[in-house]
Design a protein that fits this description.
Strand content: over 45%
CATH topology: Metal Binding Protein, Guanine Nucleotide Exchange Factor, Chain A
CATH architecture: Beta Complex
Number of strands: 10
Radius of gyration: 13 Å
Protein name: DUF427 domain-containing protein
CATH superfamily: Domain of unknown function (DUF427)
Number of domains: 1
């Protein structure tokens, strides 16, 4: 990682719930919180705690020089709401296949 840029990943002790359009998309007590220089804290949720049946894979992929290439999923009317790193960089391997939502409630 470049000088001054830092990523930390730790098990969250908070309950995370994702609700969109009144529907619960995910709920977990097993999330990982990723903190990255210049970015808000992001909660990565294991796929077992996500309603994958409600998500549609997107053609969108983005590349982060620190985490790797992200794949995205959408909901009707909400493109690219969810992302994951199927093959993350070695430094962040703990988030492999965990899903991150742009909107979460943390309790």
């Amino acid at each position: 990682m470049t000088t001054g840029h830092r990523i930390t990943i730790e098990k969250s002790d908070r309950h995370v719930r994702v609700v969109h359009g009144g529907q619960v998309l995910a709920e977990s007590d097993r999330t990982l919180v990723l903190r990255e220089t210049g970015c808000p804290a992001r909660y990565y949720i294991p796929p077992q705690d996500v309603r994958l049946d409600l998500l549609t894979p997107s053609a969108t992929h983005t590349h982060c020089p620190f985490k790797g290439t992200a794949s995205y999923w959408s909901l009707p009317g909400s493109a690219d709401l969810v992302w994951a790193y199927p093959e993350p960089k070695p430094e962040v391997t703990r988030i492999k296949d965990h899903l991150c939502f742009s909107e979460v409630e943390v309790g």
